[in-house]
Amino acid sequence: MMKWLRNISRILVGLVFIFSGFVKGIDPWGGTYKITDYLYAFHLDFFVPIALPLSFILSFAEFAIGVGLLSGTFLRFFSWLVLIFMSFFTPLTLYLALTNPVTDCGCFGDALVMTNWQTFYKNIVLILLTIILFAGRRKADHPLKGKSGRFLFSGLILTYVVLVTWSYNHLPIIDFRPYKVGVNITRAKEIPPGAQPDVYKNNFYYKNMKTGEVKKFAEENIPWRDSLTWEFQSMDQPVLVKRGYVPPIHDFSILTPQGDDVTDYFLKDDNYTFMLVAYDLRQSSTKNQERINALAKWAEAQGYNFICLTASLENEQQTFTEDNNVPYPFLSTDEITLKTMIRSNPGLILTYKGTILAKWHNNDIPDSTSFRQELLPEMNKKLNQD
Fold it and tell me: Using one digit for the tens of pLDDT, what is the confidence trace for 241-252?
């Protein structure tokens, strides 16, 4: 019985750690943004410059622990490591659940979004399994012994490193975010008929005109029928009791420098729209700026839209334009939205009637010639088939 329980614990904990490390590893910038959120929430701003290395270290540690447990390689070492890991993060997630400094824990990246309480309950189960595994570490079976186990362990770690390196220099090999290729942004913003709305608790204060007493009433108990006795005085700020349906995309907008909302123009236009995403122009790479400028000029000559979405201030936009001879207009979008849209600064997104057709990391942005000769015919063929 105990042998069976130890093996189940080893397999379950191993799989969870492999999944957690993998989904964070292939999206290193997503992990960086989440760690940065936590650092700001805990007033540890001085650690922000090392958020990216911390993202790599955390995801690699989780993946290595998972592979070690699942294969049984270096099982005693990884049993100690996972116990230390869970002993630190379980009380931490309890604190996060109680204080809620960041609403999304980020433990499974964007692949599986969990609340802080859900994360804490998950960690309670994991630490119980970890204790069972640790207690029987000297008696545990080794599924793969000797060279075969070490070969598998090394192979999986090497594969992981290759995939993470690719995702860092290009885009994540799997896109778990709502702005993936094939998504229609307009439809993803819609709330379907019959969807559950947000539920709020409201408290109202009424004055008894006979006695002068001011009494608090819940919404369902308002004395609205007795208007001769009770007079409305005030109400508390509504309190969210239950979150209703939230569409996959709910915070996307495009604003002109004058503050006009032009979102629908670009999402409904019967034309190609190139969206260059540069959430912070001060940190935006300019190594391919000449290629981007040439592509923008070519797109304009074809009658296509080419815009840059940024959260930078207008004076920063002006400076960037002058320093880099930029031929395209800048429009404003929320910084968090831009970071969610594409993991590159800058990155390029091609849309047609609001549907995302393609995305490119800054390292992979095509030049005008390759787009005209290779990519455009492919895009037109795809649109005709749809």
Answer: 788 888 899 889
